Amino acid sequence: MIEVEVFGRERLGERDLAPGLIERLCARAASAAGLDGGHVAIVFVEAGEIARLNATHRGRAGATDVLSFPIDGAEPLHGGPPRELGDVVICPEHTVDVAEAVVHGVLHLLGMDHEVDGGEMLARQDEILRWEGLVGGPSEELAEGCEGVDGG
Q: Quick count: other Cβ atoms within 10 Å of Cβ 66?
């Protein structure tokens, strides 16, 4: 089971997602990558905060839409506490589609990288969005602005 904590949801305002959708999107993304357990935090922040994180962790000035901070990675863990997947930080004011940003960030936590995988990550992202009945078109727009802090 994927445990999801959501922080700063009030920053979504009118763009808030249906109850349980963020959790389902995280679980679907993890499942698509072969994981059935772990913990992930989704954090919604203002532009100034994501710009600070972007500068500190990626050396890039300005705000972006989504950043991923993986912790345990996607390799199997044997025994011990549930896997700590990491944190996905999203700036709603720089994000076109919040649901897409959630999936995108979680896939980055799991080691996927749209810059080197020949389209696999973005295809999986669109598939997950379709499973939830959300229109998923080609996701190049989101891919241009985000990065996983681990290089993804």
A: 26
Burial class, 116, CB count within 10 angstroms (exposed 0-12 / middle 13-18 / buried 19+):
exposed
Q: What is the pLDDT of residues 28-62, one digit of tens each?
A: 998 887 887 889 999 999 999 999 999 999 999 99
Residue 89 tokens, joined? 């930080």
Give the separation between CA 64 and CA 32, rounded to whole angstroms: 25
Q: Euclidean distance between the first and final Cα of the chain, in Å?
A: 25
Give me the sheet containing 2-7, strands edge to edge.
2-7, 38-44, 84-90, 66-70, 147-148
Residues 6 or more apart whose CB falls under 8 angstroms from that of 122 comprise: 114, 138, 139, 140, 143
